[in-house]
Amino acid sequence: MSPTQTTLAQVLPLAKDLDENKVTPGVLGFVVFALIGAAVWMLMKSMNKHMRRVDFEEPAGTAPAAAGATGGTAEGTDADGTDAADARKAEAAAPAPSERKG
């Protein structure tokens, strides 16, 4: 008889003593879960560091879209004095994304 067969012959009777309806992940499952949790924590920490470095300031020439929608006047001009009809004409004249070459 080989050493492997001898070991199996000794261990198999012990396995029948286990409750077959109870399944647990064990220590290996905990270690894997803890490693995944630590990796996510480190990724979130790194993302926060990189997001703090991003400069979110808009250029001075652009206005937020919400200002034009809420600040318009009855004559059809936006809050910054541009004509709403002119803006629509400019949008219509611009080529569609599928027509652009690039």
Structure, explained:
With 102 residues, the chain is mostly helical. It is built from four helices and no strands. The chain is rod-shaped.
Helix-strand layout with pairing:
Elements: H1 3-15, H2 26-53, H3 65-70, H4 84-93
Given helix and strand content, the structural type is: mainly alpha
Report the biggest beta sheet as strand number plus sense, adding barrel if it closes: none
How helical, in percent, are the residues? 55-70%
Counted by DSSP, the helix tally is 4
- Roughly what fraction of the amino acids lie in strands? under 5%
Give the SSE string: HHHH
Radius of gyration: 33 Å
**Mean residue pLDDT:** 74
What key attributes describe this structure?
102 residues, mainly alpha, 4 helices
